[in-house]
Amino acid sequence: MVDGNDVPGDERDDGGPASAIVLLSGGLDSATVLAIARAEGYRAYALSVDYGQRHSAELVAAQRVAAALGAHEHRVMRVDLAGIGGSALTDPTIAVPESPTQGIPVTYVPARNTLMLALALGWAEVAAARDIFIGVNSIDYSGYPDCRPAFIAAFENLAQLATKAGVDGYRLRIHAPLIQMSKADIIRAGVDLGVDYGLTVSCYQASAEGLACGRCDACRIRAAGFSAAGITDPTRYARPGGPLT
After folding, report:
1. Res. 13: pLDDT tops 90
2. What band does 139 get if pLDDT is binned at 50, 70 and 90?
3. Pick among 3.30.70.370, 3.40.50.300, 3.40.50.620, 3.40.50.1820: CATH of 19-202
4. Percent of the chain with pLDDT over 90
5. How confident is the model at residue 239, as a pLDDT?
6. DSSP letters spanning the chain
7. Rounded Cα gap, residues 94 and 90, in angstroms
8. Do 60 and 53 form a contact (C-beta atoms < 8 A)?
9. Which own/partner pairs from 40-44 qualify as long-range (CB within 8 Å, at least 24 positions apart)?
């Protein structure tokens, strides 16, 4: 459900906690979502996707975050979105913008969230999970079409038609608890849940060591969020002076 206000799913048959698949990129938002799922009592299966992203340091960050927040299991699955191209995040010949742009930016990755949710849906069936968490946001974000409430609602409807679980009468829920939150509110919520944002990587062109450029859209949004929240930004930058504002 897109408002993120549902109660946790039913307990397992053996009385244990309900299971959920949590999409975990290694960035700020997905780390917060994993913390939320754990706080709501879910046994969290964290799923990261190696889709050919240039900023692969986020996958290393995802490992750190999964361990720190107590994920039951963490898997990395691979999809070759670099083979599709068309995005600055997968094609090294396309420059990552270092100033605000009009319209949907070239950092948009075609079909990324659709494919990630599809992978999560498949794992959910195998893990007997009825809930999937994703950290999309439609307030402080880059304008990607697959981060909107309408997309999440449509995918949840698709999940009922496309799965054995749905046909058997089990409701599959897509949780997007951050979708209507500002970046500052996301950060405050994560801090309250004990998230160490120093473990995360958000930068679209982070170095192999996870150092942020301070210039891309993701860096600007992240820095503005920490500033608005009144919380010290633990981001490590590749250049002196931190982010551009």
Report:
1. no
2. confident
3. 3.40.50.620
4. 84
5. 80
6. -TT--PPPPPPPTTS-PPEEEEE--SSHHHHHHHHHHHHTT-EEEEEEEE-S-S-THHHHHHHHHHHHTT-SEEEEEE--GGGT--STTT-TTSPPPSS--SSS-TT--TTHHHHHHHHHHHHHHHTT--EEE----SSSS---GGGSHHHHHHHHHHHHHHSHHHHTTPPPEEE-TTTT--HHHHHHHHHHTT--GGG----TT--TT--B-S-SHHHHHHHHHHHHHT------BSSTT----
7. 8
8. no
9. 40/8, 41/8, 41/17, 42/8, 42/9, 42/17, 42/18, 42/131, 42/133, 43/16, 43/17, 43/18, 43/19, 43/72, 44/19, 44/20, 44/69, 44/70, 44/71, 44/72, 44/133
pTM of the predicted model as reported, rounded to 2 decimal places: 0.92
The residue written with tokens 């473990």 in the block is 199
User: 176 pLDDT exceeds 60?
Assistant: yes
Buried b (16+ CB within 10 A) or exposed e, 75-103: eeeebebbebeebbbbbeeeebbbeeeee
Tokens linked to 24: 């975990």
Contact 115, 161 (CB under 8 A): no
Distances (CA, A) of 63 to 2, 155, 206: 26, 27, 16
Distance, CA of 81 to CA of 131 (rounded, Å):
25
Would you list the domain boundaries of the chain? Answer: 19-202
